[in-house]
């Protein structure tokens, strides 16, 4: 099957490029519409800089050579969207410490963004820049346009300093995304980018990684000798999942 072929090719390419630490983009095939392992689309947009209270302009050139998050949301003056923006803003100090730039985007105008920030209580003290894409051109480039509605899906993209998209999360409008989990993913991607090691499920700093840059052959088929199930999901994780399910069932 094509997907199996692509997976094998990607694994082989990742192995070959441990020395160069660079993936040959032209040799990687991904499903149409999936942007992971592709370059960040070029763009230029008007924006509202909430930190200064002024209009500005942003472009993809501003983010070259930097870890960057481009975060699409459906619309200003909605219900879930301000909660996501506020949560991302609350995490901004941690993201800045990690050297990560954040750009929010919707298909509203810059004037709507300004009014939205000024009137929504959750957005008090907002420091983010919100780009305006009223034509939907950039939203389509990232593959998150809801055609016919003129709105964006909840699409979040992490771009590394090489301009390569290394993670994307796309959700339907009714459910907001987890900033806490996203910060964990960023740290994991930065660790992998820096060291050439790979991070197992649920990895956090201090947990075991898989040093495939040095131990590929002995590790193949023996991952369980390097990490245990307890390394992947500990008692606190299990308890938190149990409490979430119980709270949902009892609601």
Provide a descriptive summary of the structure in words:
With 251 residues, the protein is an alpha+beta fold. The chain contains nine helices and nine strands. The longest helix is centred in the C-terminal third of the chain and has 17 residues.
Question: Outline of this structure?
Answer:
It is built from 9 helices and 9 strands. It is an alpha+beta fold and about 250 residues long. The longest helix is centred in the last third of the chain and has 17 residues.
Q: How would you name the oligomeric state of the polypeptide chains in this document?
A: single chain
Structural class: alpha+beta
Q: Determine the N-to-C terminus distance.
A: 44 Å
Measured by DSSP, the beta-strand proportion falls in: 15-25%
| Biggest sheet features | 7 strands, mixed
Find the count of extended strands (DSSP E, 2+ residues).
Answer: 9
Shape: globular
Helical content, roughly?
A: 25-40%
Segments where pLDDT lies below 50 for 5+ residues? 1-31
List keywords for this structure.
single chain, 251 residues, alpha+beta, 7-stranded mixed β-sheet, two-stranded antiparallel sheet
List the helices and strands and how they pair.
Layout: H1 2-16, E1 44-49, E2 54-59, E3 67-72, H2 80-90, H3 92-97, E4 100-106, H4 110-119, E5 129-132, H5 137-141, E6 145-146, E7 151-152, E8 154-159, E9 165-171, H6 179-195, H7 216-219, H8 229-232, H9 235-250
């Amino acid at each position: 099957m094509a997907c199996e072929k692509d997976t094998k090719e990607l694994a082989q390419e990742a192995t070959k490029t441990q020395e160069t630490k660079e993936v040959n983009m032209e040799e990687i095939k991904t499903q149409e519409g999936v942007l992971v392992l592709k370059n960040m689309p070029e763009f230029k947009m008007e924006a509202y800089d909430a930190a200064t209270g002024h209009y500005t302009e942003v472009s993809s050139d501003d983010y070259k050579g930097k870890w960057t998050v481009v975060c699409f949301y459906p619309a200003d003056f909605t219900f879930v969207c301000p909660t996501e923006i506020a949560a991302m803003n609350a995490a901004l100090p941690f993201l800045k410490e990690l050297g990560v730039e954040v750009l929010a985007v919707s298909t509203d105008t810059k004037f709507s963004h300004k009014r939205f920030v000024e009137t929504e209580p959750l957005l008090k003290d907002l420091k983010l820049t919100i780009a305006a894409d009223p034509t939907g051109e950039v939203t389509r480039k990232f593959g998150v346009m809801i055609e016919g509605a003129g709105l964006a899906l909840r699409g979040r993209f992490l771009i590394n300093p090489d301009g390569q998209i290394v993670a994307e999360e796309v959700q339907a409008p009714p459910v907001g995304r987890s900033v806490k989990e996203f910060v964990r993913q960023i740290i994991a991607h930065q660790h992998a980018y820096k060291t050439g090691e790979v991070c197992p499920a649920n990895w956090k700093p201090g947990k075991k990684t898989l040093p495939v840059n040095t131990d590929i052959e002995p590790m193949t088929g023996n991952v369980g000798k390097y990490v245990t199930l307890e390394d992947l999901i500990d008692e606190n994780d299990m308890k938190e999942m149990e409490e979430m399910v119980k709270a949902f069932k009892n609601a």
